[in-house]
Amino acid sequence: MQPLVSVSHLVKEYGSGANRFRALNDVSLDIHAGQVLVLMGPSGSGKTTLISVLGGILSATSGSVRIDGREIVGMSESQRPALRRDLFGFIFQGFNLFPALTAEENVAIMCKLKHVPQPARAAANLLESVGLADKRNAYPADLSGGQKQRVSIARALAGHPRILLADEPTAALDSVSGRKVLEILSGLARQNNRAVVIVTHDPRVLDYCDRIVTIEDGRVGSDELRRHIRPTPGDIA
Amino acid sequence: MGILAWKNLFYDRVRLIVTLTGIVFALVLIAIQFGMFLGFLDTAANIVENNSADLWISAPGIPHVNGGSPIQEAKRWKALQVPGVTHTANFSIFFVNWKLPNGAFETCQIAGFDLDSGMGGPWNLVAGRVEDLRGEDTVIIDDLYKRKLGVHNIGETLEINGKRARIVGFTHGIRSFTTAPYVFTSFKNAQNYIPMREEETIFILLRTAAGADRNAIKTGLLATIPGIEVFTRDEILSRTRNYWVFGTGAGTTTLMGAMLGLLVGIVVVAQTIYAATIDHLKEFGTLKAMGATNGQIYQVIILQSTLAAVMGYVLGISVALAIVHSTADTDLLIKLPWPVALGIFGLTLFMCMSASLLSIRKATTIDPAMVFRG
User: Fold this and answer.
1) Which residues, 6+ apart, have CB-to-CB distance to A141 below 8 Å?
2) Distance from C-alpha of A223 to C-alpha of A230, rounded to nearest angstrom
3) Which of A28, A98, B46, B81 is the most exposed place for a label (fewest CB within 10 A)?
4) Are A56 and A72 in contact (CB under 8 A)?
5) d(Cα A74, Cα A77) in Å, to the nearest integer?
6) Which residue on chain A is closest to B284 by alpha carbon?
7) How far is B345 from chain A (nearest CA, A)?
């Protein structure tokens, strides 16, 4: 079974000369479809840098990152937006919703960006899938933290991306809202055969994940498989 | 992306008001300053522009049409001998003192014209008849200057340079750049008011045969009549305009005011649109992280600027037109013809686009990784 994401000897450095800093140091990692992988580690260990490189937001200094069979290290800046648009859904700690748009418009704008047919209807369906059908016309300011994060998940699901990258998705949520969000995320990985990568400090997340990878000083510290993932047709053979 | 631009613009009402105020302020400044400049061009030489003469003969070296000095009227007959000249007429413009009812004096300009040819006569007559100027001591003034000259109705009598003058008509909208109103009268009456000998005139106005070469006639006149200067209509028009509008600095000042308005406008609009973009920088970063291209982010910013430009223009041009309308019955002429209004729309778009270019640069250099920084 070929992994959906394959990271090999990945190095990411910031700065140059005497100010050079190595944020990721020889990271190798495979992520399979259907898997919920949690990246844990102390602040500054390189977790966010790792998902930024995985998501094609930051370029790697060296090594290899293959997403769905495509090598992204060395990919030009002009090719990256299409990669991010077509393969990834992003969920942010601060939600990053557009305050001027309603919940449905926030999702629909991503549907349009991803050329999803009938974006308004698709957005309504996605909001329904995260239990927010009745909040379609609400503005972010009128939503609770948990509801905002669910809108953010619906937006990330626009265009059915293969990989969801979530940065501290429960950090700003109370325990009830946090569990609801985690149930949705783990369900999305299992039902829709996609990989979900969650960067977190939140121990509640561990109940919902298949695998825990710790990052320490830019290296993989431990890699613990909590549940075996059944290979699915979505994996590349 | 259109909906994001539209809703972003209206989301923060205070910022929208600030942005539109900046655009409206700049537009009104540009429109009014440029309108005043056009008004100056119009009033500086309206007495020439509305004169049907093809050629003007004057004393040599006059600085402008309001600065002529006497020449012998007899030269008129010599001019008639030059091939191509069909009609000649005397015409005088001269500064005089108008005695107000309270005993004070106001400076005016007598425009004494030949009633038979009509060259140099009044236009836009709204009361009375030009023919009434055949009567002795009769004058026509513009109704914009009634108050200034202490006149209310036709039939009133006043004094010009100590001589009686009776109002027989009013024009509307004949303004004077010098602020000394024109007082139209027959050439014969004008001779009473102007300190000039009977055989003298200030200008000799000529009509030429249809299709005649006016430059050739001008050369013929200069060769035949010594001690004169000959102008085509365009020549005396531009000499007069250049003197009053540029020579006095009035036109340059208003043009510079318009340029300043443009600069202030660009700065104000740039600042507000730039600040609006900075406010939405995280949103643009989010869009970029999620796969939007720089081109799609440009679209949002440019659309926001265009919407602001259109709204600002509609408001700004409405204010400018209201100001123009409110000055219609004053001695200050502000012109805002539709090609200028259209040009100002182009200028508004240019200002807003230039401003958005500055913010585009900022938006496209966003590090998309910023979205992971809380």
Assistant:
1) A99
2) 18
3) B81
4) yes
5) 9
6) A98
7) 28
**How does DSSP classify residue A220?**
E
For A84-114, the pLDDT digits (tens) are 999 999 998 888 999 999 999 999 999 999 9
**Exposed e or buried b per residue across B220-254, where buried means at least 16 C-beta atoms within 10 angstroms of its C-beta:** bbeeebeebbbbbbebbbebbbebbbeeeebbeeb
Question: Which residues from A are below 8 Å from B289, CB to CB?
Answer: 55, 57, 84, 90
What percent of the residues of chain A are helix, what percent strand, and what percent coil, each to the nearest 5?
Answer: 35, 25, 40
CB atoms B288 and A81 under 8 Å: yes
pLDDT band of residue A172 (cuts 50, 70, 90) is: confident
Residue A128's contacts (CB-CB under 8 Å, 6 or more residues apart) are: none
Q: Is the pLDDT of residue A231 over 50?
A: no
| Rounded percentage of chain A residues whose pLDDT exceeds 90 | 48
Residues B369, A82: C-beta atoms closer than 8 Å: no
Strand order in the sheet with A195-199: A88-91, A163-167, A195-199, A36-40, A211-216, A219-225
Interaxial angle between packed helices B2-11 and A103-113, expressed in degrees from 0 to 180 and rounded to the nearest 10? 150
Residues of B in contact with A114 (CB under 8 A): 291
Q: What's residue A191's pLDDT?
A: 75
Per the listing, tokens 């997403």 go with A67
| Cβ–Cβ contact A190 with B under 8 A | no
- The candidate with the shortest Cα–Cα distance to A46, out of A236, A227, A216, A230, is A216
Q: What is the ipTM of this complex?
A: 0.85
A95 has a chain B CB within 8 A of its CB? no
Q: Do B372 and A52 touch (CB under 8 A)?
A: yes
Please give the pLDDT value at position B244. Answer: 87
Q: How far apart are CA A170 and CA A172, in angstroms?
A: 6
Mean pLDDT of chain B: 89
Identify the helix (H) or strand (E) that includes residue A117: none
Buried/exposed B190-215: b ≥16 CB within 10 Å, e otherwise: bbbbbebeeebbbbbbbbbeeebebe
Interface check B223 vs A, CB under 8 A: no
Is the pLDDT assigned to residue B361 strictly greater than 60?
A: yes
CA distance A189 to chain B (A): 19
Any idea which of A103-112, A220-229, B124-133, B322-331 has the lowest mean pLDDT? A220-229
- Residues of B with Cβ-Cβ distance to A58 under 8 angstroms: 369
Give the residue from chain B lying closest to A59, CA to CA.
B369
The span from the CA of B261 to the CA of B277, in Å, is: 23
Q: Which of B4, B10, B289 sits opposite A84 (nearest CB)?
A: B289
Identify the H or E element spanning A159.
Answer: none
Whether A46 and chain B come into contact, CB under 8 Å, resolves to no
- Which residues, 6+ apart, have CB-to-CB distance to A134 below 8 Å? none
Residue A1's pLDDT is what?
A: 67
The shortest CB-CB distance from A113 to any of B282, B290, B369 is to: B290
